[in-house]
């Protein structure tokens, strides 16, 4: 039985920063690849490839994925929530801007902080930690506020879909921490999610009428490989490993860094302005992370 830690250490913080950094970069990759590969089809390729890589990893490491351990029902629930989250994201992008969608998506830690203590008392946040969570979310909204000016009458549906996606992300974390999934290996935990997604997302792509292409430019091929190997396999495996060993509420707050990293990479790659408000938001996110992870006296 793996012992759980009550606070984040240097290893977990390093892994979290690396994951959020790549996830922010991946958003720019996805955007740059849209001209050749539709978004839901991109996700389908990514998760199908990640499922194959995970199976090979488990064979190499001797991890038993199909041994009965009482986690099937919870695993299928977590996988369905994970796949539904991505379905909401891709459908929502048809109605709202990426910046608006990102703001609403990153309400996920609020769902974790509000619901998880019902089942896991050790995850209860103190008032100063709630303040840190609020600081982090306010920073994201502040940095992405320009996206709200582009909103129109039809954006409400996309906003709702993004809020639902954030809720589904939070509920996935809650299911993982409050069920038998908290005791399974990181590999099996990830398998439930990428496995279900690799089945559900191609169906979503077909339902959306996306065009499936079979040949890719060198850039697109590189993008898909990075999204699959680093994004859907390595970074998610690290995330699942950390969920099994560290407080989920403190891990989740780091997710606020992802959209800010995405804005930074957008500025470097897509020549989008890195405004003073973005830099101020980064400071607020850092403050929020410090407050959420502050040890009690």
UniProtKB/TrEMBL annotation:
Predominant location: membrane
Membrane topology: Multi-pass membrane protein
SUPFAM superfamilies found in the cross-reference section: Multidrug resistance efflux transporter EmrE
Record field: transmembrane: 45-63, 75-95, 101-120, 127-144, 156-177, 189-208, 220-239, 251-270, 276-293
Keywords: Membrane, Transmembrane, Transmembrane helix
Cellular localization per UniProt: Membrane
Superkingdom assignment: Bacteria
Tagged with keyword Transport: no
Residue intervals of the EamA domain: 12-144, 157-293
One GO location term (cellular component): membrane
Pfam family, one: EamA
PANTHER family per the UniProt record, alphabetical: EAMA DOMAIN-CONTAINING PROTEIN, INNER MEMBRANE TRANSPORTER
Protein family: Belongs to the EamA transporter family.
Name assigned to this protein: Multidrug DMT transporter permease
Lineage: Bacteria, Pseudomonadati, Pseudomonadota, Betaproteobacteria, Burkholderiales
């Amino acid at each position: 039985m793996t012992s759980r830690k009550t606070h984040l250490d240097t290893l977990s913080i390093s892994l979290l920063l690396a994951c959020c950094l790549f996830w922010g970069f991946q958003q720019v990759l996805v955007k740059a690849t849209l001209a050749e590969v539709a978004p839901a089809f991109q996700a389908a390729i990514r998760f199908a490839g990640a499922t194959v890589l995970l199976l090979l990893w488990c064979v190499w490491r001797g991890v038993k994925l199909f041994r009965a351990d009482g986690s099937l029902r919870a695993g299928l629930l977590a996988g369905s929530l994970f796949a539904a989250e991505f379905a909401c994201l891709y459908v929502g992008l048809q109605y709202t801007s990426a910046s608006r969608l990102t703001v609403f998506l990153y309400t996920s830690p609020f769902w974790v902080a509000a619901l998880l203590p019902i089942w896991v008392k050790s995850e209860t946040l103190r008032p100063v930690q709630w303040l840190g969570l609020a600081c982090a979310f306010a920073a994201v909204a502040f940095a992405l506020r320009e996206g709200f000016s582009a909103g129109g009458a039809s954006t409400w549906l996309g906003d709702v879909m993004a809020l639902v996606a954030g809720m589904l992300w939070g509920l996935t974390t809650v299911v993982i921490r409050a069920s038998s999934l908290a005791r399974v290996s990181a590999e099996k935990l990830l398998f439930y999610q990428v496995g279900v997604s690799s089945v559900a997302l191609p169906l979503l792509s077909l339902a959306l009428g996306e065009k499936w292409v079979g040949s890719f430019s060198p850039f697109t091929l590189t993008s898909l490989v990075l999204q699959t190997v680093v994004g859907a396999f390595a970074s998610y495996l690290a995330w699942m490993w950390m969920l099994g060993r560290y407080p989920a509420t403190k891990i989740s707050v780091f997710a606020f860094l992802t959209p800010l990293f995405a804005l930074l990479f957008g500025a470097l790659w897509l020549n989008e302005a890195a405004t003073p408000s973005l830099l101020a938001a980064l400071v607020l996110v850092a403050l929020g992370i410090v407050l959420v992870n502050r040890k009690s006296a």
